[in-house]
Sequence to fold (164 residues):
Amino acid sequence: MVPDIEIRPARLSDIPEMARLVAALAAYEEALDERARYDWDEIRDAPSWLRVVLSRDHHAVWVADSGKGLLVGHLWVRLYRRREGGVPALSGYISQAFLEDAWRGKGLMKLMLGDAYQWFRAQNVTVVTLSVLHRNWLGATAWHRLGFADWREERRLELRPKRS
Ligand SMILES: CC(C)(COP(=O)(O)OP(=O)(O)OC[C@H]1O[C@@H](n2cnc3c(N)ncnc32)[C@H](O)[C@@H]1OP(=O)(O)O)[C@@H](O)C(=O)NCCC(=O)NCCS
Fold:
């Protein structure tokens, strides 16, 4: 347990703070790998699209609240419905998980994931997946410790214009 931090579902009044955490995660990933790039106009617009996320039944967000008007982390999950024959047709997906530096490694994500698993189970989800940057060694290690096994690799090729 981390004293003074409350894990709870996100509410609309959290949006300014959540937008700050969304931007912090984008900056964190950009610093890890020069290929990871974000559209910062879209990141700046997070307050408007987070409002949509919070209103959708197939998305759920939990926050770690310091109680001083500041959030120290968030977990955003969603349901993912496959339509090309793969099973299970419905699975869970971790869209974003982030804790500020000083609050990492204290079990807060484990607590938020516990709430997310409960939400997933209530919707008959039996599989949860996520994607982590290959160069995010700390995040990748934490996900292993949290029980996520290597399963599928995502590969990338930079497609350059063909010389004529
Ligand atoms: C990855 C992240 C979300 C994990 O959250 P967290 O609250 O730090 O994780 P927890 O404290 O709940 O730890 C969960 C497990 O991972 C382990 N762990 C956490 N950080 C670790 C690290 N840096 N190295 C090794 N193990 C680590 C913990 O020991 C724990 O395992 P245990 O129960 O067997 O001891 C968080 O560290 C973070 O925000 N990192 C930066 C952003 C990021 O990488 N986000 C994920 C993008 S895909």
In short: The two ends are 62 Å apart (CA to CA). Residues 6-145 form a domain with the Aminopeptidase fold (CATH 3.40.630.30). The longest helix spans residues 15-32. The chain is about 35% helix and 20% strand.
